[in-house]
């Protein structure tokens, strides 16, 4: 149940992240003067344990440098460069303080509001990107090839904020109104209302009120503040009067003053049935609480108590047809104490009635580090994307721009479009807004019912990938009637199946056996999944690897020496209507998986299998070395700002069609690889997948299956956005922040989409259910793309303490902490002094976007 319930509060935590203030219902256009009254800064993170930079990491030299060494070293030490000035957020994670993940999510998103900088400037809008504050979740791509080309589409929440302070000795009061979380597709949060009705958590809006009386300082790292929040829904959900507000969750985060002047804070939140009253009938309950006391401002020693409890009721006949409503619950209570050397943790846990206790000791000087976000910086003075750059300057990409339409805000970029009002129809007029100057530019949005993806091949030596794991879908090489998804590795001579896997809610689940007789209750006839894949001369093997950018193709050539064999990797981009290499009327030849054009829902209903929606595939007669059948010909049509794939006069599209009868959960379809020049008839049709350049059409009902372009009204030019930088990177232990040897010599295809957005490493789940990248790069290593070299720096870091013998914590004790450090209760949650109806009407453009003042 831990996989489900935290998601219910993750969105509520987003609302917490703002400071609160304001509350007038009058209309304001923003602006105003703050005079000489300054705002008060709050902490960005709250850690029980102070993070420490290891000596080796702090003194690390620049790794893999190919630019001017002196220039780079100057940039890394010059206090005026972006590399030096950009702040790094580091916190220490331990399962005993997991409830503080919610706290740090709150503070991270709050930091994006810039409430301290907007004091007395009137109510304003901040566009907040929650994804930048998420940690512990699986951020890897799906690994399921053939599903979607969807990427890093920017999505914002529009918060209304008012930050006030009457004078320099008064508290800063911040009020925030957070709108209902937007859901996409068929996403539905778990948990329902009383009597099994709609889930109120899907409808909640969040109100946050923060009072700050002292800013953070070296002497007081937490400052002094009180933050109260609540999630509210319309009373009609609970059969209360419409228009009334009913709270479905509430909480508080606040510092505590003590006689010794030590840093101290408490956190409490409750949701669902734990709220009592109208919520008592809800089928989930959650409570989190923490109490932390540090002995000094540096956090060298301290104590903490934390608690979390949750329960969830559901009716699942597939689990147990006779069980009726099933309730699962768990709770964890931790007492911790630490000094400068070690950390003592004592736990008391219950999982649906099974109780466990544990005492453990970890090191405060020996950490593993995970990095959630990296920035890139230019390694030398020069030119980048037509602009002059200097060593140490942050790498900026033109990845998109904000816009307004119909009084709402959105963002369009390389990956697509986000709009707070939902999907934008074709030919929507929008205004690109320069919020700093107030000027705007008119554009027209064009939305195509699919997108054309160009794939460009590069060859690499297969030997470089020995021991790496790939994904493969197809028949088992021994039990050929059994098809499935397999983990495959190359041992230097052959590809071998390691195990079988299936995709679960939290990622791939591996199995070492195959149930070839389909008898789930009888494991006696299961056989081992491991086997060698034997390939004949000229036979190809299609694989998938997240770390290498997706599809990989290997063609077996028996006569080629083992060390000279190659595999083909691919990079891809989206073909725009103004593409110089593909014009309107161009023919695309499709050999396999050729989707029919003009499909309607009746075609889906009448189809017995998904194959009925595709044309017959071209085969190959090995006796005569001739293709059997002819490739299907499509035409690229470019008009009215859209590029479409045409099947005769019909568009190839499944946009708006329900494909669920085929078990299609992502709502889209793709063609096979297509070519602009037909293959010789003496060539096997699957050679289309080995072409240096090929094209694939993707269509579906989701936003990411549509090609969105924006065309300037004044001159009909198309807005151009930078494709993410791409790096072929070979990892080494010397470049690893933890000195890990597991991926030494392994190759990865990395992409960088702008500050904080580096991806390409596979993700792995730890024993405590948290996800992190399998590789953690050290600061100061070099990455090269074309003629440009860059230096990397981790911006969001999480340290985990390594296990120690229990005797190492002999000087620490948690005895009696439950009494001396009592956990907060719901009675300590303060009142939010305003309601939804008090939200100011702000007509001015957003004053803050992702924490950047406009």
Write the layout of secondary structure elements.
Blueprint lengths: L4 H12 L10 E2 L26 H4 L10 H9 L4 H4 L3 E5 L6 H12 L12 E5 L28 E8 L7 E7 L26 E10 L9 E11 L10 E11 L8 E9 L11 E11 L7 E13 L11 E13 L3 E10 L2 E25 L3 E3 L2 E3 L10 E6 L2 E6 L2 E4 L8 E7 L4 E9 L3 E11 L7 E7 L7 E8 L4 E10 L2 E5 L1 E2 L12 E2 L2 E3 L6 E6 L4 E6 L10 E9 L12 E4 L10 H6 L12 E3 L4 E3 L3 E8 L2 E6 L2 E2 L16 E3 L3 E2 L17 E8 L7 E5 L12 E6 L16 E6 L5 E2 L3 E3 L5 E3 L8 E4 L2 E17 L12 H4 L20 E2 L5 E2 L2 E2 L1
Parallel strand pairs: 1-50, 2-49, 3-51
Antiparallel strand pairs: 3-4, 4-5, 5-6, 6-7, 7-8, 8-9, 9-10, 10-11, 11-12, 12-13, 13-14, 14-49, 15-16, 17-18, 17-20, 18-19, 20-21, 21-42, 22-32, 22-41, 23-24, 24-25, 25-26, 25-29, 27-28, 30-31, 31-32, 33-36, 33-40, 34-35, 36-37, 37-38, 39-41, 43-44, 44-45, 46-47, 48-49, 51-52
> N-to-C terminal Cα separation, in Å?
42 Å
Helicity, as a percent range: under 10%
Oligomerization state: single chain
Largest sheet: 17 strands, mixed
State the helix count: 7
Q: What is the general shape?
A: globular
Strand content: 35-45%
In angstroms, what is the radius of gyration?
Answer: 29 Å
Helix-strand category = mainly beta
Contiguous uncertain segments of 5+ residues: 1-34, 141-150, 184-197
**Beta strands, count:** 52
| Average pLDDT taken over every residue | 82
What can be said about this structure in brief?
The chain is mainly β. It has seven helices and 52 strands.
Give a structural overview.
The chain has 854 residues and is mainly β. It has 7 helices and 52 strands. The strands form 11 sheets. It has a 17-stranded mixed β-sheet that branches. Strands 19-18-17-20-21-42 form a 6-stranded antiparallel β-sheet, with no helix packed on it. A hairpin with an 8-residue loop joins strand 8 (245-255) and strand 9. Helix 1 packs parallel to helix 5 (100-111). The longest helix is centred in the first third of the chain and has 12 residues, at 5-16.
């Amino acid at each position: 149940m831990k996989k489900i319930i935290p998601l219910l509060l993750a969105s509520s935590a987003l609302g917490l992240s703002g400071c609160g203030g304001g509350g007038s219902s009058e209309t304001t256009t923003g602006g105003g003067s703050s005079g000489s009254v300054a705002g008060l800064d709050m902490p960005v993170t709250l850690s029980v344990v102070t993070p420490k930079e290891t000596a080796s990491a702090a003194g690390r030299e620049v790794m893999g440098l190919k630019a001017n060494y002196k220039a780079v070293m100057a940039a890394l030490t010059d206090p005026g460069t972006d590399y030096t000035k950009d702040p790094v957020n580091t916190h220490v994670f331990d399962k005993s303080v997991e409830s503080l993940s919610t706290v740090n999510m709150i503070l991270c998103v709050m930091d994006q509001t810039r409430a301290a900088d907007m004091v007395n400037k009137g109510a304003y809008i901040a566009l907040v990107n929650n994804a930048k504050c998420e940690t512990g979740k699986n951020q890897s791509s799906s690994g399921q090839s053939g599903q979607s080309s969807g990427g890093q589409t920017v999505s914002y929440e529009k918060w209304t904020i008012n930050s006030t302070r009457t004078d320099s000795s008064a508290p800063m009061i911040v009020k925030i109104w957070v709108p209902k979380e937007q859901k996409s597709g068929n996403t539905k949060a778990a948990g329902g209302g009383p009597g099994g009705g709609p889930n109120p958590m899907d409808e909640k809006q969040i109100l946050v009120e923060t009072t700050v009386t002292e800013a953070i300082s070296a002497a007081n790292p937490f400052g002094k503040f009180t933050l109260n929040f609540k999630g509210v829904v319309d009373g009609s959900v609970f059969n209360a009067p419409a228009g009334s507000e009913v709270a479905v969750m509430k909480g508080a985060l606040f510092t505590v003053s003590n006689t010794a002047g030590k840093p101290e804070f408490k956190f409490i939140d409750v949701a669902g049935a734990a709220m009592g009253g109208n919520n008592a009938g809800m089928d989930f309950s959650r409570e989190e609480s923490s109490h932390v006391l540090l002995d000094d401002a540096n956090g060298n020693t301290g104590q903490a108590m934390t608690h979390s409890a949750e329960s969830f009721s559901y009716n699942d006949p597939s689990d147990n047809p006779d069980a009726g409503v099933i309730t699962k619950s768990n709770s964890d209570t931790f007492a911790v104490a630490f000094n400068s050397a070690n950390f003592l943790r004592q736990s008391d846990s219950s999982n649906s009635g099974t109780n466990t206790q544990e005492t453990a000791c970890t090191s405060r000087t020996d950490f593993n580090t995970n990095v959630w976000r990296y920035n890139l910086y230019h390694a030398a003075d020069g030119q980048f994307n037509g602009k002059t750059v200097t060593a140490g300057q942050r790498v900026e990409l033109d990845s998109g721009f904000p816009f307004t339409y119909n009084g709402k805000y959105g963002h369009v970029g390389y990956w697509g479009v986000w709009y707070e009002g939902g999907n934008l129809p074709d030919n929507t007029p929008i205004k690109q807004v320069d919020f700093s100057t107030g000027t705007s530019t008119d554009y027209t949005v064009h939305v195509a019912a699919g997108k054309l993806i160009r794939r460009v091949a590069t060859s690499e030596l297969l030997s470089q990938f020995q021991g790496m794991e790939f994904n493969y879908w197809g028949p088992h090489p021994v039990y050929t009637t059994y098809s499935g998804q397999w983990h495959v590795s190359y041992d230097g001579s052959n590809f071998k199946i390691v195990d079988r896997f299936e995709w679960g809610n939290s990622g791939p689940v591996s199995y070492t056996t195959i149930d070839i007789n389909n008898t789930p209750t009888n494991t006696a006839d299961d056989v081992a999944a491991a086997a060698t894949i034997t390939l004949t001369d000229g036979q190809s093997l299609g694989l998938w690897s997240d770390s290498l950018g997706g599809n990989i193709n290997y063609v077996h050539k028996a006569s080629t020496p083992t060390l000279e064999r190659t595999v083909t990797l691919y990079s891809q981009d989206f073909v725009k209507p103004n593409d110089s290499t593909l014009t309107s009327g161009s023919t695309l030849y499709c050999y396999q998986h050729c989707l029919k054009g003009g499909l309607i829902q009746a075609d889906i209903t009448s189809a017995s299998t998904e194959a009925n929606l595709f044309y017959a595939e071209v085969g190959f007669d090995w006796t005569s070395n001739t293709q059997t059948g002819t490739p299907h010909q499509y035409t690229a049509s470019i008009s009215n700002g859209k590029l479409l794939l045409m099947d005769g006069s019909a568009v190839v599209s499944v946009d708006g069609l329900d494909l669920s009868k085929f078990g299609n959960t992502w709502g889209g379809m793709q063609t096979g690889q297509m070519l602009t020049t037909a293959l010789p008839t003496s060539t096997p049709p699957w050679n289309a997948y080995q072409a240096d350049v090929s094209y694939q059409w993707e269509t579906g009902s989701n936003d990411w299956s549509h090609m969105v372009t924006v065309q300037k009204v004044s001159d009909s030019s198309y807005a151009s956005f930078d494709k993410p930088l791409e790096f072929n990177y070979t990892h080494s232990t010397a470049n690893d922040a933890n000195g890990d040897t597991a991926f030494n010599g392994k190759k990865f295809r990395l992409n960088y989409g702008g500050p904080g957005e580096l991806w390409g490493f596979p993700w792995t789940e730890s024993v405590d259910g948290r996800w992190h990248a399998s590789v953690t790069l050290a600061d100061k290593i070099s990455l090269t793309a074309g003629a440009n070299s860059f230096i990397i720096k981790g911006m969001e870091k999480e340290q985990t303490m390594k296990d120690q013998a229990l005797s190492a914590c002999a000087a620490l004790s948690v005895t009696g902490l439950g009494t001396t450090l009592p956990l907060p209760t719901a009675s300590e949650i303060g009142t939010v002094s305003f309601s939804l109806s008090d939200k100011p009407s702000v007509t001015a453009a957003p004053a803050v976007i992702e924490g950047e003042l406009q």
